[in-house]
Amino acid sequence: MSVRTSGVTVATDSGPADAAGRGPSPATGPEAYGAGLDPDDLPDGLVVSDETGRVVCFNAAAARITGIAAEDALGRPLEQALPLQDVEGRRWWRLTDPYGGLAIRRGQPERNLLLGGREVLVSARYVRSRPTGPVQRLVIALRGTEARRRTELSHAELIATVAHELRSPLTSVKGFTATLLQKWERFTDDQKRLMLETVDADANRVTRLIAELLDISRIDSGRLEVRRQRVDMIAAVRRHVQAQTTAGQQPDRFLIRMREPLPDLWADPDKVDQVLGNLLENAVRHGEGTVTIEVGPVTDATSTEGTSVTVSDEGPGIPEESMSRVFTRFWRGSKRGGTGLGLYIVKGIVEAHGGTITVGRAPAGGAQFRFSLPVATPAFLA
C-alpha cells in the first residue's frame, strides 16, 4: 500500500505478520491517525520513523517549523533527516539512542533542542509491539518556540512593571519613615501629618498593586471566585461618583442617566465596585469634559436578561487601531501613570460573571465602555 504524506507518496507495508511474528508495519496515512485525518491537518509538527529508523511521515507543520522540505526528509535515516542537537552541541539521537538502550523507555519528555541554529521543542514516543520489545515506530512531536517566548516575555514584562511600580512608593515610605524616626522632634505636627498621609497613600498604592497581581493570577488560572449577592447598580454608581467628588472632582462633571425598571441583579458587589471604580477613574484621568454613566436593562434581543452600564467621556477617545488592545495586559491609553493592568482585570471580572464588555467611541467623541451582567442567581442557590 502507498499513502500520500506532505505531498510525497510513501510506500508502507500493512500486510500480514512477518516471519518473526511481529504485526504489520504501521501505516503513515489517514488510516493510522484516525478516519479522515491527514497528518498535514495537525497544528504541531509530526515526524514518524519506522523500525529501521527511516522517516516515513513528515507533515507540513514539521516542514514549516524545521525549515526542511518533506521530500528531503522522507525515506532518510532519522539522524540525517532531523539532525537535532542539545544545548551543549551533542547529537541528540546518538545521545538518546531510541532504538537501543533500555527497553523499558516509553519516550522523551518535551525539551528545547537545536536544529540548524533554530530552537525547536521536541518530544518523542517509543511505540513497541509489546513491553520491553523492539521499537517499531518512533513518533516525534515538534513545536516552535514562539508561543513560549511570548509567554516568557509577558512574564518578564509583568515582573519589570511590578518592580517599577513598587520601587517608587516603597522608596517614599522608607524615606519618610526613616526621616521621622531620626528627626521626630524637629517637625511640627502639620509636617508630621503630611508625611504620614504620604506614607499612607503610598502604602495604599502598594496594596492595590498586590491586589491586581492576585486578581491576574486568579483570572489566568480560572480561579476567580464570584460570590453573588443582590446588587443595586444605581446605588453603586452614585457611591462611586460621590467618591470622585469627595476626592476633589467637580460634581457637575458627572451625569447619571437611568433607564428603569432594572431587573434584579445578582453579582459579586466587591467586584462590581472594582469594575465601576476602574472605569470611572479611567474616564476622569484620561478623558475630558462630562463623564456620563448610563444604567439600564440589557436591550439586545440576542442577550440574556441583565443590567447594562455605559461609561463615556468627551476626551480625545481611543484611536481605532488601539481598540483591539485595550483589554490586554500593560495597555496604557496615555502617559498619565497606571500599570496598564486595570482593564485586563475588568474584562476578566465581567466575563467571570458571564457578562460582556466592549469599547467604542462616545457620541461626544471620547471613549465609551459598556459592560453587561446577566441577572444570574444568588450564591446560595447556585
Q: How would you sum up this structure, described in words?
A:
This protein is 36% helix and 22% strand. By secondary structure, the protein is an alpha+beta fold. A five-stranded antiparallel β-sheet has the order 4-3-7-6-5. Mean pLDDT is 84; it is low at 1-34.
> Tally of extended strands?
14
How large is the share of residues in beta strands? Answer: 15-25%
- Spatial sequence of strands, sheet with the most strands: 4-3-7-6-5
Spans with pLDDT under 50 lasting ≥5 residues? 1-34
Largest sheet: 5 strands, antiparallel
Mean pLDDT: 84
Termini gap: 57 Å
Percent in helix: 25-40%
Structural class: alpha+beta
Net shape: elongated
Helix-strand pattern, N to C? Answer: EEHEEHHHHEEEHHEHEEHEEHEE
How many helices? The count is: 10
> What is the radius of gyration computed over CA atoms, rounded to a whole number of angstroms?
31 Å
Q: What's the assembly state of these chains?
A: single chain
Write the layout of secondary structure elements.
Layout: E1 2-5, E2 8-11, H1 30-33, E3 45-49, E4 55-58, H2 60-66, H3 70-73, H4 78-81, H5 92-96, E5 107-115, E6 118-128, E7 135-144, H6 146-183, H7 189-221, E8 229-230, H8 233-246, E9 254-258, E10 266-267, H9 269-286, E11 291-297, E12 306-312, H10 342-352, E13 356-361, E14 367-374
Parallel strand pairs: 9-11
Antiparallel strand pairs: 1-2, 3-4, 3-7, 5-6, 6-7, 8-10, 11-12, 12-14, 13-14
Helix pairs in contact: 6-7, 7-10, 8-9, 9-10
